[in-house]
């Protein structure tokens, strides 16, 4: 972690606000203006892992190239004098996990639908550039406006984002080794195919995770929970979601759409365009 007072380019560190798997997020200030920012720094021990460093640099590059109203804005990036790379982000201290917790776990159906539309919009923009997020969950959704009826969210954490070659794909990315079989993602939000072959998934895992998030915002809990990863895996692979938990919480059209987003087979899930159109 960076000590308070540490200088990072034209910013100064105030305090650490989050400890991640491979990096820390700090609150910082622009020295000249006093403007608050977030400074994400890779842990020094990960700096020797080429794959982790490549992912971090790719995240910085993608955030700086892909401007979108519902994507967190990166204001700069670089490398500290002693090695670790950093990304400076706009300061958005509240995430959707906290908003849900303070609201008793659920949001009114209209607020949930609004959040889903905004996320579907930014995910579609990522997919158009050949990027799959792969780690959509409330802690990776930052809240820019909190007022009920006017919630505004921004997607964060492209740390697990996967690049798929193709037309319009973002270029000059660093290659990320696909060796190893480490599970990538967060159990409650991982599509069946992501459990089985996490490195070769496509954009439809983001549709599934968005379905999980929508279900959670309506029901107050994700469709599948369990004490261990293997319990979660079996449920995602084999068990139908408890759709009855959504009854009375959202219109029939919404419930049908969520059900399709949670289909086990990727080809049966709706496209993000269909989600945006509210089509079932
Ligand atoms: N721009 C930001 N402003 C304020 N807090 C942030 C910002 N970005 C991330 N955070 C906080 O730090 C946490 C970890 O950041 P994230 O980008 O998700 O990294 P990780 O890859 O470690 O999960 C987030 O869940 C959030 O609480
Ligand atoms: Mg995260």
Protein architecture, described:
The chain is α+β, with helices and mostly antiparallel strands and 280 residues long. The protein has two domains: 84 residues, Phosphorylase Kinase, domain 1 (2-Layer Sandwich); 182 residues, Transferase(Phosphotransferase) domain 1 (Transferase(Phosphotransferase), domain 1, Orthogonal Bundle), CATH 1.10.510. Helix content is 32%, strand content 18%. The protein contains eight helices and ten strands. The strands form three sheets. A six-stranded antiparallel sheet has the order 1-2-3-4-6-5, covered by helices on one side. A two-stranded antiparallel sheet has the order 7-10. The protein is globular. The chain starts with 6 loop residues before the first strand and ends with a helix. The site of adenosine-5'-diphosphate has 21 residues, from strand 2, strand 3, strand 4 and strand 6. The site of magnesium ion has 4 residues, from loops.
